[in-house]
TrEMBL record:
UniProt lineage: Bacteria, Bacillati, Bacillota, Bacilli, Bacillales
GO biological process, one term: lipid metabolic process
Listed PANTHER family: GLYCEROPHOSPHODIESTER PHOSPHODIESTERASE, CYTOPLASMIC (PTHR46211:SF1), GLYCEROPHOSPHORYL DIESTER PHOSPHODIESTERASE (PTHR46211)
Span of domain GP-PDE: 4-241
GO molecular function: phosphoric diester hydrolase activity
Protein name according to UniProt: Glycerophosphodiester phosphodiesterase
SUPFAM superfamilies found in the cross-reference section: PLC-like phosphodiesterases
Superkingdom of source: Bacteria
Provenance organism: Paenibacillus wynnii
Entry-linked Gene3D superfamilies: Phosphatidylinositol (PI) phosphodiesterase
InterPro entries assigned to the protein according to its UniProt record, in alphabetical order: GP_PDE_dom (IPR030395), PLC-like_Pdiesterase_TIM-brl (IPR017946)
Any one Pfam family match given in the protein's UniProt record, by short name: GDPD
Length: 244
């Protein structure tokens, strides 16, 4: 029996605008979706906001950098029209809004979108928020940035962390161990059976991204039953493994 958990990538982003409450609600509506991946940055005034790109231009009707706009301005932007007329007026959410909607329903893989010191204090801001909601056990904080993961542990060593890895070289198993991570987020093209086996035996959760085709989902399931499958199309996951 397969055990490969379904992780909704930026919510149900195959059908709804990514990283919006619409996408979160569509993911929650599927009973087999247990996890969701989202991206978090900071507004100019320090509010954790849910958006993937460093620029507002692709997924909202705003322009410029996320870090240069206050939350009061940002929350008025249209973050849905680019996906289709049905989502016109959908807003860009704060992390607090997503946490409130997800609590008790979905575990969250929150990617800290930061490079170097572009968002000073993002780790503390996010940790304070998840702690105030009592959601420390429902969340893992992930990043490409080793420094960000180290700062998370400095703020609160009880918070679970995960390394995001997409390099053609390097040793992700060694890096995960050195950084004290309990989670590896890795491109499905970079994952192999030996790495999956090694990490799961060490108690590290392995999530493969971004997998939208049934053939690749089955290949990952055959590789190891504990690999979490992150997808824009959780409905394809359901069709593949549950026949729903």
């Amino acid at each position: 029996m397969f055990k490969n958990l379904c992780v909704a990538h930026r919510g149900f982003s195959g059908k709804a605008p990514e990283n919006t409450l619409a996408a979160v609600r569509m993911a929650i509506a599927l009973p087999y979706v247990r996890w969701m991946e989202i991206d978090v940055q900071l507004s100019k005034d320090g509010v954790p906001v849910v958006i993937h790109d460093y620029s507002l231009d692709r997924t909202t009707n705003g322009h410029g950098k996320v870090k240069d706009m206050n939350w009061e301005q940002m929350k008025r932007l249209d973050a849905g029209s680019w996906k289709g007329r049905a989502f016109r007026g959908e807003k860009m959410p704060s992390l607090e809004e997503v946490l409130d909607l997800s609590k008790g329903r979905l575990h969250l893989n929150i990617e800290l979108k930061t490079v170097g010191n572009v968002y000073p204090g993002i780790e503390k801001a996010v940790i304070n928020l998840i702690s105030s909601k009592g959601m420390r056990d429902e969340v893992v904080l992930t990043s490409f940035e080793a420094g960000a993961l180290q700062r998370v542990k400095e703020v609160d060593p009880r918070v679970s962390t995960g390394l995001i890895f997409d390099s053609r070289s390097g040793d992700p198993a060694r890096l995960v161990h050195e950084l004290g991570c309990s989670f590896l987020s890795i491109s499905f093209e970079r994952l192999n059976p030996n790495l999956a086996k090694l990490l799961t035996e060490q108690g590290v959760k392995v999530m493969a991204w971004t997998v939208d085709k049934a053939k690749e989902m089955r290949r990952l399931a055959d590789m190891h039953s504990d690999i979490m499958i992150c997808t824009n199309r959780p409905d394809v996951w359901g069709d593949t493994f549950l026949g729903v």
